[in-house]
Amino acid sequence: MTGILEVRGLYKSFGALAVTQNVHLTLEAGARHALIGPNGAGKTTLINLMTGVLKPDQGNIFLEQRDVTNMSESGRVKNGLARTFQINQLFRKLTTLENVALSVSERLGKNHVFWSQAWRNSEVLDEAMVLLKRLGLQSDALTVIEELPYGRQRLVEIAITLGLSPKVLLLDEPAAGVPSTETPIILDAVDALGDDIAVLIIEHDMDVVFRFAKSISVLVSGAILTEGTPEEIAENEQVRAVYLGESLDA
Amino acid sequence: MSGFVTSAVSIFFDGLAYAMLLFVISVGLSITMGLMGFVNLAHGAFAMAGGYVTVACMNMLGVPFIPALVLAFFFVAIMSIPLERLLYAPLYKAGELDQVLMSIGITFMAIAGVTLIFGPNPPAIVLPEFLKGQIDLGFKTFPTYRFFMIVVGFVMAIALWLGFERTIIGAKIRAAVDNRQMAQAVGIDVDKLFILTFALGSGLAGVGGGLAIDIVGISPTFAFNYLVLFLIVVAVGGLGSLRGAFLAAIVLGVIDTAGKYLWPEGGAFFIYVVTVAVLLIRPDGFFGKGASQ
Amino acid sequence: MTTKVYDAENPVVFLRDRTRWHWAEALPWIVAVAIFFLQPITLNLGVQILITIIFALSLDLILGYGGVVTLGHAAYFGAGAYVTGMLSAHLGWNEPISGLLAGATVAGAFGFATGWILLRYHGLALLMLTLALGIMMAELANVTEVWTGGFDGLSGIVIDPIFGIFENDLWRRNYYWYSLIATFFVFLACRRIVNSAFGRSLVGIRENTERMRAIGSPVHLRLVTIYTISAFMAGIAGALFAQVNAYVTLDVLSFARSGTILIVLVLGGTGRLYGAFVGALVYILVEDELAKEYPAYWELGLGFVLVLTALFFRQGLLGALESFVRFCKRLKA
Fold first, then answer.
1. pLDDT at A121 over 80
2. Which CATH architecture has domain A5-249?
3. CB within 8 Å: C139 and B269
4. CA of B140, closest CA in chain C: separation in Å?
């Protein structure tokens, strides 16, 4: 058990609806893990449990062997756990550069300084600018988010998360709503992440999943159905039945 | 009978009459805030307008009291429809701040308009004979009008409850309060529902304004002076909840009356303490959305 | 095709230097000094405007930057007013500057205590809680008559001359300067705060709280911090009010005061500090002209302007001005 992020026996219900049932999941450093499953399987709920947006009814979450089950959302981020959202959560009235600078500045612990001018020695802004360049956003540095096309906003979503220098990165459908011409930019950015970073991706597009993932978990009705390499999952009859079958029908 | 029991009974009686007035006015606000998520600070102005329609009908046109209340209902209800379409609808998706400002603006205009027409002083009406005088219950007499108020409050509560629980429109409103998107998805015309509910809620406020004349009195500033009470009834009861508004009106109405009776200088303090306490423990009120979790 | 609001060779330098002083920022202070010498309005009115500016600035910190809508900000204005007043009336603490700071400190402490609880809530529940808390404070001041003077108001406030020299004269010549200097310090502090990284993070909270949490921001702590600072500044405004008038009534805690300051700020424009200046100046001047002689028309006009603002000019007067300037620039280009 040397996972950088470990989830042990997690349960969560909303009223009578059990959305997470006895989920175990381990991400090693450098993992490229995909979480797939039909709509309503509880994938985003699982991310919300891991990041601390929701509290589990039962079970524990470990970050680098440390129990963070009762740690606040911000505490977990400080310890290296970062996420993107399925639907963009951006500062819509701020510029792209400010969006990313806010997260860099938060990581560096500068956002509680209220008596000196923001980012005066431009250390924060420079780093944010480097991230923008990495995602090909530098020409939009001063564009206000709400004026950006959705696909570009999606890139900002990732840039913000990268600004946190995460050890574990949870990507909730990063390519959703992105025109297919721009998906490679997102995937390249993820590919370029260091080998020490563990990445968990939720994705519906099987091309993306099989291109990206080295291992896959299948979540159905809140429980892990099976785990394995992409090849194993592709061959698995059960998975075909409940998941791939469904997506073919749809 | 001991003085204590007599006092307690009369506090409860007066409190209940006051509570029913609060209920009749607040229930519309509760439904519209629950349904549309709109912070409507102009609701007090609607009640005030209804009060002045009643006054105008009776004193200028010689309409009797009860028909005047009915006219107040229809006048305010119909008047609220263009307001809803032109001023409220554009702000459904806006933040609370814009809604607060817009509805405060309407209130200012309503106060000014009424002051210009009727003057700043509280008007008086002459109640019909059957509502005047006192009813003798043996140990104490009570004003007939308060009895009337209590009866009207209960009748309205029952009528509304039946309307919500037993009619299709009521079911649609409940569905839309519960989950607007879902309601829309199953083909409920939410726009139409908004107009209808808003008109109904405003009309009820109008009737409440008419009923208020002989209990708390109305004047142009009624629109602001009592607004806070209506808002806390809604908040404590839970947005969009009929029984919440009913229960909260009774709790707050009786506590307020008791407070003012027992401690005339400072009695109003209590209901705000109660309100803050309730909201801290149950931010969604007694029966608000999400209160069950 | 995206339209760029800003254009600069180097975005980093642009953002870093955006908070530099602009020459136009000297304007309000030039106007304020000119008012003293030319007296187009009475200095008494000038003092009222200055106090309103401080109060509106304090509100802008939490509303315009933190995104917290409150209907009970008068609670902190009133706390400052009553504490400063009572210190003088009951304890003979008549020294003005320490009295002012004492009132503001109590208001700030009260802001911290209430903010810690209130800011766990949001949306409608928060709105109702601030409303109820504000009125509860007014009722509390009413029932603690022994200390506050209750409905009759707190009298017996005697304020020593500032530095033992400058008295509160009938024409407010000294108190105009006193208020102006207080306004200047409050403004400097506000400007520093909103231009700091902390201030930027508040804007982040206003724009998207969920995202701020997800980048590891302790949102509650940030909001409590700014709420406390805001309450302290509201307390300064209230304390000044008590000292200038040497009298405090329940009116300092009223719902009307909470509502009015919200209106003042929104009319001027939120989230830009100078909105507080424009809003206070315009509101108080127009009110002074109209409210006494034609109260009904004042209310009618105010109501109409509010409706228009909410529907069409959500950024207030300054925002409308900015849009207009931008529009002209585009026409030229």
1. no
2. 3-Layer(aba) Sandwich (3.40)
3. yes
4. 31
